[in-house]
Structures are given as C-alpha cells and as structure tokens.
Write a structure and sequence with these properties.
Keywords: Membrane, Transmembrane, Transmembrane helix. Helix content is 26%, strand content 24%. It is of the alpha+beta class and 427 residues long. Among the domains are: 106 residues, no CATH class; 31 residues; 139 residues, Galactose-binding domain-like (Jelly Rolls), CATH 2.60.120.260. The longest helix has 39 residues.
C-alpha cells in the first residue's frame, strides 16, 4: 500500500522531495509514495492571484499609453452621441486571449519571452477598458494549462522511475575491446638477411701468432696484423706433383673386407663335403660293404676263408690249428675306398650260443688300412658266443684284417672258428 506525500511534496519517511505526480518509489528509502496529493487552498489561489496582478498591470500600461494619434474614429449612436472607435485591430476575444497567454507562458518557460517581473508590452489595439477585461481570464486559463502540463510531466517521470525500480535492468556492460578496423595494407617484401662479411679462404703464409693462412703477397696478417716480412713463405706444389714424403694410402678397410670374403669362400669349399657327409650319415642307414677279395693266413680245407663272408651262419672259417691259434688272421680287400662304420662278427661254428664244438675268438686285433697305405690298429674283446658288433669308423678304407690273439674253449682237438663277418658303411 502506498503512502501519501506531504503537502510540500516530500516523502513522509525520509523527507526527500519527489517528482510530484503519480505513484513511484522514493529514490532514497524506496517507499512507494502517491505524489498526487491535492494542494492546499493557499497553493491553489496563488496562480489566480498572480494572473490577476499580471492582467491589472497590462491594463494600467495600456491606459497610460492612450490612443495613438490618428488611430481613432467616431461612431454615431442612435441617440445622437458620437463614440470613438479604435481604428486598429479589434481586441482579442476570450479564446484568442487564452491562446496568447499560453504562447507567452510557453515563451517564459523556454526562456525566450521577457522575464516575469519586467514590464509587459502594451497591447497594440483598443482602449484599456477592453484589454483589462480580457486579461484576467486569459491569465487563469494559461496558469491552469501550465499546471496540467507540469502535472502530466511529473506523472510520466514518476511512472518511468517506478518501472525502473520494479523491472530489473541489467548492468551496463562495457563493450569488449576487439581488433579495430584497419585499412588493407600493401604487401611489403621481406627484408634481406644481412650476413656478416667473411674473409676468403687464403693459403700461402701462416701467421706465427694466430696460425691463420694469408696470401703470399700480404705483408701483415689479415687476422691480427702481425708482420709477415720475416716469415718463410711455403711454396705450393705444382699441378701433378706430390709433396715430399708422400706415400700412397693403403685402403686397409677394403683389404680386410676382401680377405674376410676369401676366407669364407675357402672355408666353405673345404667344409662343404664334410657337411654333406655328416648330413648323409645322420639321415641314412649304413649299407653292407661286401669285399671284392678275401684271404686268410691259414684255413682248414673243409672250412675256407670265403665261408666267413658268404652271408650265412651255418658255415664257418677254421684256422686249421689246435689251441688258441694266436696270430692267425682273416683278411678282406676292397677294389675302391669305402667309408667303414662298423663290423659284425659271429664267433664259433654257428650263431647259436650253445654250440661250443669249436673254440671261439676272445681277443681280436682289427688292422684297417686306407688307400694311402696308412694303417690303424684297434683291439676288441668279444663275448663268448652270440653276434658281436664292433665300431670301426674310418674313411678311405681299402683293407680290413682281423687277427686272433686269444680264444674261448681252446683244446688240442678244437680249432678257432668264425661263422660270419659282415662290414657296413658308405661306399
């Protein structure tokens, strides 16, 4: 609920003078005030008294001035009396006077007309009586119109102030500073890069102080200015002439590379057969190597040396001597060198262990001879009966001899017998 303003147009809470019209909030305390409070009778009579005084002043001024010379005329009445009539324009009527008063009031408010306390210009027409009669009414109309205008302006101002207080207004934000508009510029070529001056490479005289080379025609060093008059000038070798003490440089790196490549090739040439043989030995089984010729130191007529290499075990070779037959041998020869791996020996008259009708070899010496005449001796001890396997690995073999050194079950009526001899390897 709004509060009523005082008769003087002040806020009843804080005493601040308000706009004087409409409802709005006080600018200081924020109280909603009704500023349209009716003025007191004294305040209402003040404009009318001011208007009356102004009209009286105008009448007195017009009467003092009198009629202008040659501006009056006489008018005959019906009763025979003459009445002077002003020759100028007729005095304004009430509406015209009100309009004139409004214009003069507007001029006073805008500051263009004469001041309120100054002399009022005399009216141009008529006598003072007619002018004095119209002035009070015109003054009251002008004062009333001025009061209405002031009240309307105050009401509008109050409404705007109240609306500003009720509706939140965002704070004024400063415009963001951006890049200002600029005119397009002309393309400017890049500035050339300035390089420091560099002395040309020279050779000839070496400065004894700083070690910089100088041309032979220089008398002072180009670096530190040292005199070069007493320095020995070295003569450059002519074209095609090598300096003294020169010797050709040996490209050791290239030599080492070539030597390494040759070593690899030679090693591959020597190792290739070995590698091939090892691969074959690893992935292939030994094959039988039947001899091309057999012989013996001595043999029984019924049991020759060929019986030990016939591939069957029911025939045998006999030494033809009783006892252990020490020194007797059985020999096999090959027409071309072979790679011997193992020898299988079946001692006795047969492969049956229980067959002990003849003596069996115990200590055997195997003599292996290669194609170049080199011999290798290997000694083996055989078991009494059964098939015996003897490992005798050797390459380039052309002859194998088995020499009996002792025997099992030797007697005067028995001879040493070997039922079968088989040799395996790679031909």
């Amino acid at each position: 609920m709004s509060e009523k303003a005082t008769a003087d147009g002040l806020c009843p809470v804080c005493g601040t003078r308000g706009p004087g019209g409409g409802e709005s909030f006080c600018e200081v305390c924020g109280t909603l005030i009704d500023w349209d409070t009716a003025p007191s009778p004294e305040a209402a009579s003040e404009p009318s008294r001011a208007a009356e005084e102004e009209a009286a002043d105008r009448g007195r001024t017009s009467a003092a001035a009198g009629p202008r010379p040659g501006a009056s005329e006489t008018v005959s009445r019906a009763d025979g009396e003459e009445e002077p009539v002003a020759s100028g324009p007729k005095p304004p009527t009430a509406p015209e006077s009100a309009a004139a008063s409004e214009e003069s009031a507007a001029e006073r408010r805008s500051g263009e007309g004469p001041p309120a306390g100054g002399p009022t210009p005399a009216p141009e027409a008529g006598d003072g009586g007619a002018g004095g009669t119209a002035s009070p009414a015109a003054g009251r109309a002008a004062s009333s119109q001025r009061d209405q205008d002031d009240a309307g302006d105050a009401a509008d101002a109050g409404r705007q102030r109240a609306r500003a207080l009720l509706v939140p207004v965002p704070d004024a934000e400063s415009a963001e500073e951006g890049v200002g508009a600029v005119l397009p510029g002309r393309p400017v070529p890049a500035r050339p890069e300035v390089r420091a001056a560099r002395a040309d490479d020279e050779s000839g005289i070496v400065c004894p102080r700083c070690g910089v080379d100088n041309r032979p025609d220089r008398l002072f060093c180009r670096n530190d200015g040292t005199p070069l008059s007493g320095v020995l000038r070295a003569e450059a070798p002519s074209s095609g002439q090598r300096p003294a003490g020169w010797r050709p440089r040996i490209p050791w790196k290239r030599v080492l590379v070539i030597a390494g490549a040759l070593c690899v090739l030679v090693g591959a040439a020597f190792l290739t057969p070995v590698v091939i043989r090892e691969v074959n030995e690893h992935f292939s089984d030994p094959a039988p190597l039947p001899p091309t010729a057999v012989s013996a130191s001595n043999a029984d007529a019924a049991h020759p040396a060929q019986a030990a290499f016939d591939g069957v075990s029911n025939s045998w070779w006999g030494t033809g001597y009783s006892g252990d037959s020490s020194g007797q041998y059985l020999q096999a020869n090959y027409g071309k060198p072979v790679a011997l791996e193992k020898v299988i020996i079946t001692p006795g008259a047969s492969e049956r262990v229980e067959d002990r009708s003849q003596a069996r070899p115990e200590q055997v010496e195997v003599l292996i001879t290669d194609s170049r005449g080199r011999s290798t001796v290997r000694n083996y001890t055989l078991a009494d009966g059964g098939v015996q396997v003897v490992e005798a690995e050797m390459d380039d073999v052309v002859q194998v001899a088995m020499i009996v050194r002792s025997a099992y079950g030797s007697a005067d009526d028995k001879q040493v017998a070997i039922a079968e001899v088989e040799m395996f390897g790679r031909s």
